[in-house]
Amino acid sequence: MTTWARHKEEQRLHGEAARAYDLERQRMGVGYLILQARSEAGLSQGALAERIGTSQPTIARWESGAQLPSVRSLLRVADATGFELIVGLRDDRRRQRVVELGSDAG
Fold first, then answer.
1. Tell me, which fold does domain 15-102 have in CATH?
2. Is 76:69 a contact under the CB 8 Å cutoff?
3. Is the separation of the CB atoms in 65 and 31 below 8 Å?
4. DSSP 82
5. Which is nearest to 34 in space by CA: 19, 51, 17, 18?
6. Contact status, residue 82 vs residue 95, Cβ threshold 8 Å
7. pLDDT digits (tens, 9 = 90+) for 32-72
8. CB 92 within 8 A of CB 52
9. Total-model pTM
10. Residue pair 53/72 in contact by the 8 Å Cβ criterion
């Protein structure tokens, strides 16, 4: 029986297909950022869930984009992975950042 991880390794995307896949992952937004932070911290979904006091299925839903975490949960993810959370709003008409709140902000 082939595992999913082994199948993905054997069917690795290359060239334009890999770039298109990565672009779509980035378009997923917050979920993709959580996945990147977790991966860079060397944590499994279960390990991250344990560190922040939630369940592995919740982490999976966040990473897939099926559910959005609260800002409080994002702060816990940032803390658990060694990242800083920065939340911002931008006026798309001017392409200028209007508001930016860091995890250091009270």
1. 434 Repressor (Amino-terminal Domain) (1.10.260)
2. no
3. yes
4. T
5. 51
6. no
7. 899 999 999 999 999 999 999 999 999 999 998 889 999 99
8. no
9. 0.64
10. no
Per-residue tokens: 51: 């560190």
Chain segment 68-105, per-residue pLDDT in tens: 999 999 999 999 999 999 988 777 776 655 555 554 44
Comparing 27 with 52, which gets the higher pLDDT? 52
Closest CA to 54 of 24, 37, 76: 76
Phi-psi category of residue 100: left, alpha or beta, with phi > 0 → left and psi -120 to 50 → alpha: beta
Contact 21, 13 (CB under 8 A): yes
- CA 75 to CA 102: how far, in whole Å? 10
**Cα angle, residue 3 at apex, residues 20 and 7 outer, rounded to 5°:** 35
Q: Is residue 63 within 8 Å of residue 25, measured between CB atoms?
A: no
CA quadruple 95, 101, 103, 105: dihedral sign: positive
